[in-house]
Every structure is written in C-alpha cells, then in structure tokens.
Amino acid sequence: MSQPPPKFTWLGHATLRVDLATGETLVIDPWLAGNPSCPPSHRQLDRVDLILVTHAHSDHMADALALAREHDATLISNYDLCSYLEVQGAPRVSGMNLGGTQEACGVRISMVRADHSSGFLHAGLPVYGGLAAGYVVQGEGWSFYFAGDTALFSDMALVAELYRPQLAFLPIGDHFTMDPRQAALACRFLGVRQVVPIHWGTFPLLRGRPADLEREIGTLGLATEVVTLVPGFPWEPETGALPARTGLGVQPSP
After folding, report:
1. If pLDDT is split at 50, 70 and 90, which confidence band does 247 have?
2. Is 58 strand, coil or helix?
3. Domain count, the chain
4. Radius of gyration of the chain (CA)
5. CATH code (residue 136)
6. Residues 60-74 pLDDT 10s
7. Gap between the Cα atoms of 99 and 84, Å rounded
C-alpha cells in the first residue's frame, strides 16, 4: 500500500529536512549554525530521527554530531566517517558503503556513487573522510535521489535503472559540483519528473542558478520540472503547491 510522499524543507545550501508521513524526521547534510542561507528560525530542529551525511566536508556535516547527540538520532554515512563520528560521541551510527541498502525509519536507503572529494581538518591537518556518496530514499509508492556534491557521470543512468527515483535533488552551483548544463544532462540520465536545485547561491563562487537549469533542460527538450524551493518553506510534492515567496528571510543570493 502506497503512502503519501514526504514533505521537504530545504534549509539552504545542501541541507534538507524530510518529514515522513509516518511522523519521523530525516535531515540530510546538516549545516545549520554557520549556514548563511539557513533561516535563523530553522537552526534549531524540534525533532530528528535520522541523519544522512553524503561526505565529510564541513558544509555538509558541521552539525551532524551535535544533532545526533541532542536527539539520540541514528546517523548514516560511509563506514569510515561513521567510525570516526562514533568515537566522537555519536550515540547511534550505521555505516555503509556504495551499492548497499539498509532500512531505517521505515524507508529504504541506498548509497550510490558521487564523484567528489571527502575530508576535513583536525588540528590543522587534513583527515580522510571516506568516499563521497549520494542516496536514494524509497518509501511505499515514492522515491527520491539526493546526489550530494558530485560531478556529472553517465552511471546516473544506472541509478535510474536500479531505483527509478521520481524526484532528484541536484547541485547546480558549479566550481565544486555540476553546473546547470551538467545537471540538465543528469536529469536526462535519471529520467526524473521533477528536480530541485541545491548547492547554489550560498557563496559568490557558486554561480549556477535555477533559471539556468530551466533553460538547459528546455534546450534538451526534457519534460523535467524544475522546482525552486525557498529556504525554510516546506514543499509537499503530492499537492504540487510551492510556498509563497513573499516576506522571506534569508535566501541564496539571486
């Protein structure tokens, strides 16, 4: 029996809150306190059951450990990074690796490839953070792909073949990740009905914009809809309604 899809709240940059119809809350790549695109009212979360971390860069995991401790939440990432975070005091970790699938909070979580680096500084020295990854999250009757930070790679077509995601969260900022042209090609490989651009506008280096993605998708003749979210405003794919864009607080720069 199918369930309603989750409610998604983009918290700026690459941080995503996912509220399941069953009541649990997932947070992907939590960067809250230092994130200039995260509305101040959303830097404290009322509930967190599960945390997914795609890779070890601070703009994707800076608040993962603190959230895991505060909410006694399960933390999922690559095995190496989970081992480190467990030593640092994460109460519940469930490390995995590329190609694997596990269940948590009643959904299936598959770790898929991402082409990106992964590491952090400790005492001024670089520390290896395990392989960067993306995730496909599947419930009953819905699925989405969260690419994390990645370049374009043609094996995204395998993500489509294996998992059939209906919705993709793709970085478009350029410099550190795909740009809008590459993200449009990713939509063609994935065959998704909708795409939400992430990892854009936070810093001047991240030049890609949702309008650029819309143009590139149009050039390719794709039917994929670009859904541009506003930080802190929830979106429910089932209704199709986007949040009002008036009276907004912090937003990525236009």
Report:
1. very low
2. helix
3. 1
4. 17
5. 3.60.15.10
6. 999 999 999 999 999
7. 21
